[in-house]
UniProtKB/TrEMBL annotation:
<dbReference type="InterPro" id="IPR011050">
    <property type="entry name" value="Pectin_lyase_fold/virulence"/>
</dbReference>
<feature type="signal peptide">
    <location>
        <begin position="1"/>
        <end position="18"/>
    </location>
</feature>
<dbReference type="InterPro" id="IPR012334">
    <property type="entry name" value="Pectin_lyas_fold"/>
</dbReference>
<feature type="compositionally biased region" description="Polar residues">
    <location>
        <begin position="38"/>
        <end position="49"/>
    </location>
</feature>
<protein>
    <recommendedName>
        <fullName>T9SS C-terminal target domain-containing protein</fullName>
    </recommendedName>
</protein>
<feature type="region of interest" description="Disordered">
    <location>
        <begin position="20"/>
        <end position="49"/>
    </location>
</feature>
<keyword id="KW-0732">Signal</keyword>
Length: 461
């Protein structure tokens, strides 16, 4: 998000300080989640021990709520509203068990009245764990918070005792709406933020809608994502960095027409482009949709961007309607991952269509270097010609219309391919590997079954 309200900053800082050192939950954080017949319950401060938020009660977050220990269980159909300066943070000593159903999804939304809700009304959901991250010491403070001496609740990563199978819990059949905000440059909360969550974490059937910063950001770890919808974020759809190595299948990103930036922004470690482990998730069956707006508008709108030594193995993907670039391999460190004998950056069996209006090729994305005076000293540092590299023979990448039903519709989108679409031809798709749904022999996130139906929503405000 690009706007910062003083009230958000003040409330957020106070919440951090007020919550430090509390031994007991504040009144209202009862172990059983309160009276299930009640219409509403305010929640603030810290939660210790197993707690259940029950169906029949609407819970309103009044500030940063830290689950410090135990498991927070949220029953199907529960609505959680976020007030100004609030967020739900599951610390690395706790777990989340938020499992809704298609008929009764769990909804995290703004506390503002319907019709007045907007991106950035509250801070979103944060999951913190103990898996490896590629920073010195193996531990970090999650973005969106100011580091406070002695407060470990915003820390993630396991340091010397890192556990790549760490379990941050379950988040299934859930929507997160109108969340995310920026405390300072490069210090933002997103709709869903994970830090060092491990492979035992279960994130499946989750929609993040109209977030003020990124839809989902994965800071290191190995947590996977399945059946994820990121609709109309103000910045990037999926942002990942610091050594994330998760498995992803069935992912939709749809940008809005005014401020949406990148479908993927992939980063390694900005201070050490070669830091281990490398940032290399494996992504199958994804659809990235730009807004179709004219090229050259602000901000630039790009499909897939890989920088600072980040990679990714992408298969059976659609990238369409981005205003400026389809793919940008930005810098020598990420280019080296593509050119390696065993690539850690690779795109295969992917359809590109109408990126920068191009229906015959994909745009190149040179990375110029400038001196202190602003003069260009190298027109392309990475020396990576996207149109040649990405469309090279043998990768089975194509510039072709996937014929999606209504991918550009913001109010009632449909990402399923029309009958006869080349995306449904199994000859255009690779067979997913171990750990993935191997029956998904189609290109893009959706095949003949529309898994978004029934539990997603696309409200304006």
């Amino acid at each position: 998000m690009k706007n910062l309200f003083a009230s958000v900053l003040t409330l957020s800082s106070l919440a951090l300080l007020a919550g430090c050192g509390e031994d007991d939950p504040k009144p209202g954080n009862t172990p059983d989640g309160g009276d299930p017949q009640a219409t509403g319950q305010d929640v603030s401060g810290s939660i210790q021990g197993d707690t259940t938020w029950k169906a029949g009660t609407t819970y309103t977050l009044k500030d940063y709520v830290f689950v410090e220990s135990g498991t927070l269980t949220i029953e199907p159909g529960v609505t959680i509203k976020g007030g100004t300066g609030s967020a739900l943070v599951i610390t690395r000593e706790a777990k989340l068990n938020a499992v809704g159903t298609a008929e009764k999804p769990i909804v995290f939304t703004s506390a503002q009245a319907a019709g007045t809700r907007a991106a950035g009304d509250w801070g979103g959901v944060v999951l913190l764990g103990k898996a490896r991250i590629n920073v010195a010491g193996g531990e970090n403070t999650i973005e969106g918070f100011f580091a406070t001496s002695g407060d470990t609740r915003t820390k993630y990563g396991g340091g010397a005792n890192a556990d790549d199978a760490h379990d941050c819990g379950k988040l299934k059949y859930a929507r997160i709406e109108f969340a995310g905000y920026e405390l300072a440059e490069d210090n933002e909360l997103n709709g869903l933020t994970t830090g060092a969550c491990g492979s035992a974490t279960d994130i499946d059937y989750v929609q993040v809608h109209k977030g003020a910063d990124d839809g989902v950001e994965m800071f290191g770890g190995t947590a996977g994502l399945k059946h994820i919808v990121i609709s109309q974020p103000d910045d990037d759809g999926l942002d990942y960095d610091l050594g994330w190595r998760g498995k992803v299948q069935f992912l939709v990103v749809q940008q809005n027409g005014t401020v949406g930036n990148r479908g993927i922004e992939a980063s390694g470690n900005k201070n050490d482009n070669g830091a281990q482990p490398h940032t290399v998730p494996e992504i199958w069956n994804a659809t990235f949709i730009g807004s179709g707006r004219p090229a050259g508008t602000t901000p630039a709108q790009e499909g897939l961007v890989f920088n600072t030594g980040a990679g990714g193995l992408l298969r059976n993907v659609i990238v369409a309607h981005f205003a400026d670039k389809a793919v940008d391999v930005d810098g020598t460190a990420s280019a080296a991952l593509w050119n390696a004998a065993t690539p850690e950056l690779s795109i295969q069996n992917t359809f590109f269509w109408s990126n920068k209006g191009d229906t015959a090729s994909i745009p190149n994305a040179p990375n110029p270097k400038k001196d202190a005076a602003g003069n260009v000293t190298d027109p392309d540092v990475s020396k990576f010609v996207e149109a040649e590299k990405v469309l090279a023979a043998g990768l089975n990448n194509k510039v072709v219309d996937a014929q999606l039903t209504a991918a550009l519709n913001l109010e009632a989108p449909n990402f399923a391919p029309a009958a006869g679409s080349p995306a449904l031809n199994p000859d255009n798709a690779a067979t997913p590997g171990a750990g993935f749904d191997t029956s998904a022999r189609f290109v893009g996130a959706v095949g003949t079954t529309n898994w978004l139906a029934g539990w997603t929503a696309f409200p304006k405000n």
